[in-house]
Amino acid sequence: MNAQQSHTPVTVLGLGAMGRAIAGAIHRGGHPTTVWNRSAGRADDLVAQGVTLAPTAAEAVRASPVVVVCLLDDTSVRDTLAALVDPLAGRLVINVTTVTPKRARETAAWAAEHGIEYLDGAIMAIPEMIGLPVASLLYSGSQAAFDTHRGLLELLGGARWFGADAGLASLYDLALLGSMYSMFAGFAYGAALVGSEGVPATEFAELAAPWLTAMTGGLTGHAEYFDSADYTAETQSLDFNKAAVDTIAEAGHDQGIRTEVIAAVQHLIDHQIAAGHGKESFARIIEAIRPPATGGGGREGR
Ligand SMILES: NC(=O)c1ccc[n+]([C@@H]2O[C@H](COP(=O)([O-])OP(=O)(O)OC[C@H]3O[C@@H](n4cnc5c(N)ncnc54)[C@H](OP(=O)(O)O)[C@@H]3O)[C@@H](O)[C@H]2O)c1
């Protein structure tokens, strides 16, 4: 028996940059691989490597018990899968398209209704990282599917299952991406500030990268405040940080750059100071982000 015969056949729907990388990694891992894409011409390299291009999505689905879906967004997933109810019945869908937790849960419910096993995935990688140890993929939904197909999933990168609630993988994904985008926006503010005096951003990056890396050492300390909801300040208070952040914004105004990025931080600080918490830790800004207190646990008194 050759490698292809011993591996589960897999179909990949969607051959954008990410879908192509996924199909290539699965094929190289020894799985007979069938692909489909809405537009023609995306599968040429894969076909040259031995991947099968199906003429229709339905035929692609019928070729494999496992169907990986990697489309643009939730709407494209819904539109595509809605037309595939019959061929998908009894098969496993692994949807690695970026969606919200709510959308993932809705798709999981739709799948259950139609006898389709469902595993939701979130990709913490760019296409070039797929198949390398540095790639990390998050999963939630069917644990049986995750356990049974772990070898397949690990062809794409590190694989971790977060729970039976299909929304959890995207919840973590979007939380990590939200942190990342805010950090990049902060870096852009800093680069614009020094750039107002002609400093190249590349020169600034040489300072910012080690600075931000060192600052990530403080994340766990912040998290301990967040989890306890006890912000009794043993570190710098909101009042202290207000002075610093207001100065950063004033410098931006003086240098003629836009200050929305830092204004968002000012807003969070001011919100908590106005509520009477100026002597408490800066970490308390999370209480300006969390939903209003429901009166439970350590979240009272926001
Ligand atoms: N690229 C990344 O770095 C990265 C990283 C993490 C997660 N992701 C996620 O992976 C998913 C795919 O990303 P990508 O980079 O491959 O995107 P992409 O290159 O823009 O490809 C989008 C794919 O979706 C298809 N599509 C769009 N609308 C469709 C519709 N209405 N019906 C059927 N097919 C449709 C496109 O088909 P056509 O060829 O016909 O247009 C194409 O195959 C996204 O959810 C993205 O957020 C990407």
TrEMBL record:
Keywords on record: Oxidoreductase
A GO term, aspect molecular function: oxidoreductase activity
UniProt-listed InterPro entries: 6PGD_dom2, 6PGDH_NADP-bd, HIBADH-related, HIBADH-related_NP60_sf, NAD(P)-bd_dom_sf, RedAm-like_C
Pfam entry (one): NAD_binding_2
6-phosphogluconate dehydrogenase NADP-binding domain boundaries: 10-158
Start and end residues of each NADPH-dependent reductive aminase-like C-terminal domain: 165-290
Family to which this protein belongs: Belongs to the HIBADH-related family.
Protein name (record): Oxidoreductase
